[in-house]
């Protein structure tokens, strides 16, 4: 089964098994058929194709997002597409699901825990890496070279830890920088709370 979707103004024939074809054309034998697009793995292990836009420049597009866009009813370009079996090469629609940024981080941490067999705790002031407390609120902030990316302020340290993990994921920090495990905590009374946007990724 396949569907036609537009990417950068170009029509692509996306199949539910993860195959992607270009717009049909006449081959050397005079047959009218689509061309299967070559897939390569990016640095994170996801399968991708190069899509040429009107500017004649190729842009890498991940295959699992194309399949999700074509077949998942709850497709949302602002959410993440998760591989259920953890196999990034398995882009069949049955292996894909939409997840929120927070869910994506949690699943990523669980995947890394399974892959590396690491269950560690850290003797940090607030119990989590990349989390500091100020005026009764918990801030997510990590160090990337000379920069200090900020992930927002939260009422609970567990939420700040999730945001700190998301920052680590976004900036390519090593696995040792993540908070593992993300242990649950009971709510604590803090100073009057002001709403801040949760910037995960």
Instruction: Please summarize the sheet with the most strands.
Output: 3 strands, antiparallel
- Strand percentage lies at 25-35%
The outline comes out as elongated
Q: Strands across the major sheet, in which order?
A: 1-2-3
- Low-confidence runs (pLDDT<50, min 5 residues)? 116-123, 183-201
Task: Give a brief rundown of this model.
The protein is 19% helix and 26% strand.
What does this protein look like?
- The protein has 201 residues and is an alpha+beta fold.
- It folds into two domains: 2-98, Homing Intron 3 (I-Ppo) Encoded Endonuclease, Chain A, CATH 3.90.75; 100-201, no CATH class.
- Helix content is 19%, strand content 26%.
- The chain contains three helices and 13 strands.
- The protein has helices spanning 63-71, 101-116, 157-170; strands at 2-7, 10-15, 20-21, 25-26, 32-33, 40-41, 47-52, 58-62, 80-83, 96-99, 131-134, 137-141, 150-154.
- Strands 1-2-3 form a three-stranded antiparallel beta sheet, covered by helices on one side. Strands 6-7-8 form a three-stranded antiparallel beta sheet.
- β6 and β7 (47-52) form a beta hairpin.
- The longest helix is centred in the middle third of the chain and has 16 residues, at 101-116.
- It starts with a strand and ends in a 31-residue tail after the last helix.
């Amino acid at each position: 089964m396949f569907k036609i979707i537009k990417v950068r103004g170009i029509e692509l024939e996306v199949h539910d098994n993860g195959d992607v074809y270009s717009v049909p054309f006449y081959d050397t034998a005079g047959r009218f058929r689509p061309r299967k697009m070559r897939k390569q793995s990016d640095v994170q292990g996801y399968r991708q194709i190069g899509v040429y836009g009107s500017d004649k420049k190729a842009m890498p597009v991940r295959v699992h997002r194309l399949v999700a866009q074509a077949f998942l009813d709850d497709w949302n370009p602002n959410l993440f597409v998760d591989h259920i079996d953890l196999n990034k090469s398995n882009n069949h629609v049955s292996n894909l699901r939409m997840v929120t940024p927070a869910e994506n981080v949690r699943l990523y941490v669980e995947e890394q825990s399974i892959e590396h067999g690491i269950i560690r705790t850290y003797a940090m002031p607030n119990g989590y890496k990349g989390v500091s407390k100020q005026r009764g609120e918990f801030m997510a902030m990590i160090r990337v070279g000379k920069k200090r990316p900020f992930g927002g302020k939260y009422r609970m340290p567990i939420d700040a830890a999730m945001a700190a993990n998301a920052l680590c994921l976004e900036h390519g920090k090593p696995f040792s920088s993540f908070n593992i495990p993300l242990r649950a905590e009971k709510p604590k009374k803090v100073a009057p709370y002001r709403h801040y946007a949760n910037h995960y990724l």
